[in-house]
Write a structure and sequence with these properties.
- The complex is a heterodimer of chains A (about 230) and B (about 270).
- Chain A is of the alpha/beta class.
- Chain A has one domain: Methylesterase CheB, C-terminal domain (Rossmann fold, 3-Layer(aba) Sandwich).
- Helices cover about 25% and strands about 20% of the residues of chain A.
- Chain A has seven helices and nine strands.
- In chain A, strand 5 and strand 6 form a beta hairpin.
- By secondary structure, chain B is of the alpha/beta class.
- Chain B has two domains: about 70 residues, no CATH class; about 190 residues, Vaccinia Virus protein VP39 (Rossmann fold).
- Helices cover about 45% and strands about 15% of the residues of chain B.
- Chain B is built from ten helices and ten strands.
- In chain B, the strands form two sheets. In chain B, strands 6-2-1-7-8-10-9 form a seven-stranded mixed β-sheet, covered by helices on one side. Chain B has a three-stranded antiparallel β-sheet with strand order 3-5-4.
- Classes of the chains: A alpha/beta (about 230), B alpha/beta (about 270).
- The interface between A and B is medium-sized, with 25 and 28 residues.
- Bound molecules: S-adenosylmethionine (SAM).
- S-adenosylmethionine binds next to loops of chain B.
């Protein structure tokens, strides 16, 4: 918390950041939470990330603990970035997409991950809320939080914490989501920055350097050119 | 909003106080999940600030016990990770078969399900009689539950499925007696198990073991404390001894990695070679 965050891309604010505009590259981490319908949504979304995407991405996708774990393989097919299921105390590296393992909560400690088998939180393990809250505590305003399709309410409280810490929050447009409960719950719990279709979220992340989507200094929904 | 720096100081003082007063050392535990448990314990005890919590914990033994129960995340299950137990059957059983007598240590056994699973497996392989299992945990409350071996009936369906996935071919119901909403593990499974309180952080090596299982315990420790525990394990096993970790635990950044050969990367089984 009061220690240095080696992950922050640039310790000094960029010129744009100084006037209140931030871009994905200025962030320490991008977090994505998804549940029912998440596989298809993630496959589509990851397709938008360029191979040069540097900000670490962390995904919590709800799934059965006992399920044969093919998720890593399935998702890896959609991206040139290295995709890894997290193991205990893995260092968070730039240019890597991380996936929370089935049956464990994923937390963030300074520059590395930690796991926990604490019981389900928000009826889920891994829980999106647990990851989002711990990232908000660790990285404050340098977090991008994204909630995609799902049939429960996990992630709503975590996204709120990210927003409160000054991070940027995005939610998949409930109209487009395969299951709208999770996006709806997130939108109801806090004032999110963007409500976008997957393509919009994808373009938002992809725009990392060019900033066609400047972050509003004080949050608030922007209309997004499609 | 609380000043995070002050809160950090309070948190560290709390852990220091607990160590001084009760001898339990959480100072090098992984902070993110420890904080969650402290918060949970505070919520349950109805206190708002860490200082208030510290006051309660230091002055009331019951509050400390409550905290200890919250902080020792004792979530476990019989034959959790069937692949692990399958690997035990396939790779460890043949080694154990060759030994005249065998000592196994379950470090951080929580409520004991993993220990009974091991006893069942060994009995099926006709090895249980020459084995002594030491099952330890820092928390006396969970150890009592482990000793009793009484578990909710509603969990049994999952356990049975996992038992079969792990290579078990018997009728799982022969290992317990169902009573009301619970099952009681058969007494013959308990006969070679020694239950004892032992803290991996503050207690020393107490024996030499052929197999040490410490699964999903060290995930709650920061790296330096994990290294401390690895030293303890090395002090507690001969060359040829085997260490089993949890499914998502690794040794790759440990200074002790060269002491081991990987027996099964997936099941996280390591054999001591030097
Ligand atoms: C999640 S359980 C692991 C249960 C089982 N091994 C499994 O994998 O299913 C973690 C256990 O570690 C115990 N534990 C935590 N810190 C410990 C320490 N310093 N010494 C001994 N046991 C400890 C806790 O009391 C808890 O029962």
């Amino acid at each position: 918390m009061n220690r240095l965050h080696t992950l922050a891309a640039d310790p000094a604010p960029s010129p744009l950041e100084r006037v209140g505009v931030r871009r994905v590259n200025d962030f320490a981490i991008v977090l994505i939470g998804s549940s029912k319908g998440g596989l298809a949504a993630l496959q589509k979304l990851l397709g938008f990330l360029p191979a040069t995407f540097k900000t670490p991405v962390v995904i919590v996708q709800h799934r059965m603990e006992s399920a044969e774990d093919l998720l890593v393989e399935l998702l890896q097919k959609n991206t040139e970035l290295y995709l890894k299921e997290v193991e205990d105390k893995d260092i968070i590296n730039r240019g890597v997409i991380y996936l929370a393992p089935a049956g464990y909560h994923l937390l963030i400690e300074e520059d590395h991950f930690a796991l926990s088998t604490e019981g389900p939180v928000s009826a889920s393990r891994p829980s999106i809320d647990v990851l989002f809250e711990s990232a908000a505590e660790e990285f404050g305003s340098k977090v991008v939080g994204i909630i995609l399709t799902g049939m429960n309410r996990d992630g709503a409280q975590g996204l709120k914490k990210i927003k409160e810490a000054g991070g940027i929050t995005l939610v998949q447009d409930p109209e487009e989501a395969e299951a709208r409960q999770m996006p709806d719950a997130a939108i109801a719990a806090s004032k999110v920055d963007y409500i976008l279709a997957l393509e919009g979220i994808g373009r938002f992340l992809n725009s990392g350097g060019a900033a066609p989507f400047p972050f509003p200094p004080n949050g608030g929904k922007l209309s997004v050119p499609q | 909003m609380l000043n995070p720096k002050i809160e950090q100081i309070e948190f560290e003082l709390l852990l220091e106080g607990i160590y001084q007063a009760y001898g339990y050392d959480f100072r090098d535990y992984a902070p993110a999940s420890l904080r969650r448990r402290v918060q949970k314990s505070m919520d349950n005890l109805g206190v708002k600030t860490i200082s208030e919590f510290q006051d309660k914990i230091l002055h009331e033994k019951e509050s400390f016990v409550h905290f200890l129960n919250t902080v020792s995340i004792d979530v476990t299950a019989m034959f959790r990770d069937p692949d692990f137990f399958l690997a035990v059957r396939q790779k460890i059983v043949p080694i154990i078969r060759e030994l005249p007598s065998v000592r196994i240590w379950h470090a951080g056994c929580a409520t004991g399900e993993e220990v009974y699973a091991m006893a069942i497996l060994l009995q099926e392989e006709n090895l249980y009689n020459k084995v002594r299992i030491y099952a330890t945990d820092m928390n006396a409350v969970v150890l009592d539950k482990a000793k009793n071996g009484i578990y909710p009936l509603k969990n049994i369906q999952d356990c049975t499925a996992n038992y079969h996935k792990s290579g078990g071919s018997h009728e799982f119901s022969t290992y317990y007696t169902a009573k009301y909403n619970n099952v009681i593990m058969k007494p013959e499974l308990k006969k070679n198990i020694v239950w004892a309180q032992h803290n991996l952080v503050t207690d020393r090596s107490f024996h030499e073991f052929d197999l040490i299982l410490c699964r999903n315990v060290m995930i709650y420790f920061e790296r330096p404390l994990q290294e401390h525990v690895h030293q303890l394990f090395l002090d507690s096993m001969p060359i040829g001894g085997i260490l089993g970790l949890g499914k998502k635990e690794t040794m790759y950044s440990s200074a002790f990695r060269p002491n081991y050969m990987e027996m099964d990367g997936n099941a996280k089984l390591f054999r001591r070679v030097k």
